[in-house]
């Protein structure tokens, strides 16, 4: 049965999409069967997987939310890997799903039909706690919260983690916080070092794991995302690939998979 990981933080631009795509890429490189779900109306991970704008996709995550199609009919097999594409139209219907009975458990229920086909399902989420992030948190086994190594990175973190705890109490008590992940880390930058050094104590005070691996700022990561290329198949010796590989080893160790 697939282990489901959600990459989430209500802050924007902290490398959620980059992390979701590269964890998926690393796991596929290690021969695991992986499905990525793009639950963000910005559709950024979709763009990476399909190599362009998702405008022409007609079977997307929206069809799953609207219960028009089974999720298995919405999986697109691309050169990058398997993806359920996001939809820009999602943004118009967030309130509807938020209010509908069972509207926050749509993804959890949909995934039941395919979870034996994959080892991992990775979910990319938008930078707000709405219907889509909640759906992902209900469906997930584990959550990874990326933090950018910059001042103010920690602001809002404990509120976000409180929200996750509330959702756990509400129906997904098995959700495991896998850890906080420092991203875009530049060791030469004083601010970055301050956040890096402060994190273990923050993690201990919140009783939450902080991954030992920090993802360094790396041009190859940025280029691979921009060019829709697999970092692991094109730059497997880059700092970025090494860091994401180390992260995946930590995750595998944690979940014993
Ligand atoms: N380790 C890294 N090195 C260099 N650039 C990075 C790194 N990680 C992320 N980036 C770049 O930072 C930007 C923001 O990353 P990303 O889109 O993954 O953030 P996000 O949290 O998904 O944003 P949003 O909240 O809008 O969904 C992107 O341009 C991405 O290429
Ligand atoms: Mg994103």
Structural overview:
With 257 residues, the protein is of the alpha/beta class. The protein has one domain: 3-Layer(aba) Sandwich (Rossmann fold). It is built from eleven helices and seven strands. It has helices at residues 16-29, 44-50, 61-65, 94-99, 106-111, 131-139, 157-169, 190-206, 219-226, 231-234, 239-255; strands spanning 3-7, 34-38, 75-77, 82-84, 120-124, 142-148, 176-183. The chain has a seven-stranded mixed β-sheet, sandwiched between helices. Helix 1 packs across helix 11. The N and C termini lie close together (11 Å). The relative contact order is 0.18. The mean pLDDT is 94. The site of magnesium ion has 6 residues, from helix 1.
Task: Output the keywords.
257 residues, binds adenosine-5'-triphosphate, Rossmann fold, 7-stranded mixed β-sheet, alpha/beta, binds magnesium ion
The general outline is globular
Overall mean pLDDT score? 94
End-to-end Cα distance, whole Å, is 11 Å
Largest sheet: 7 strands, mixed
CATH architecture identity: 3-Layer(aba) Sandwich
* Total tally of structural domains: 1
Elements, N to C (H/E): EHEHHEEHHEHEHEHHHH
List the ligand species. Answer: adenosine-5'-triphosphate, magnesium ion
Structural class: alpha/beta
Rg, rounded, reads 17 Å
Instruction: Find the CATH superfamily.
Output: P-loop containing nucleotide triphosphate hydrolases
Low-confidence stretches: none
Task: Summarize, please.
It contains 11 helices and 7 strands. By secondary structure, the protein is α/β, with parallel strands linked by helices.
């Amino acid at each position: 049965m697939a282990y489901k990981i959600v990459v989430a933080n209500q802050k924007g631009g902290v490398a959620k999409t980059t992390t979701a795509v590269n964890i998926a890429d690393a796991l596929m490189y290690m021969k695991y069967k992986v499905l990525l779900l793009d639950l963000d109306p910005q559709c950024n991970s979709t763009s990476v997987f399909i190599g362009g704008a998702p405008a022409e996709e007609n079977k997307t995550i929206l069809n799953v939310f609207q219960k028009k199609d089974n999720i298995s009919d919405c999986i697109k097999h691309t050169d990058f890997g398997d993806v359920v594409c996001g939809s820009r139209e999602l943004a118009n219907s967030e309130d509807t799903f938020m209010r509908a009975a069972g509207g926050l458990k749509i993804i959890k229920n949909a995934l039941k039909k395919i979870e034996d086909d994959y080892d991992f399902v990775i979910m990319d989420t938008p930078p707000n706690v709405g219907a889509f992030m909640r759906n992902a948190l209900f469906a997930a086994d584990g959550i990874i919260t990326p933090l950018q190594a910059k001042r103010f990175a920690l602001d809002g973190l404990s509120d976000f983690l409180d929200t996750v705890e509330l959702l756990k109490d509400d129906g997904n008590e098995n959700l495991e916080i896998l850890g906080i992940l420092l991203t875009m880390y530049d060791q030469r930058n004083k601010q970055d070092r301050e956040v890096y050094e402060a994190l273990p104590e923050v993690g201990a005070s919140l009783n939450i794991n902080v991954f030992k691996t920090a993802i360094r700022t790396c041009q190859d990561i940025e280029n691979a995302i921009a060019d829709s290329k697999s970092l692991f198949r094109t730059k497997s010796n880059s700092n970025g690939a090494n860091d994401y590989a180390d992260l995946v080893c930590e995750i595998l160790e944690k979940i014993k998979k």
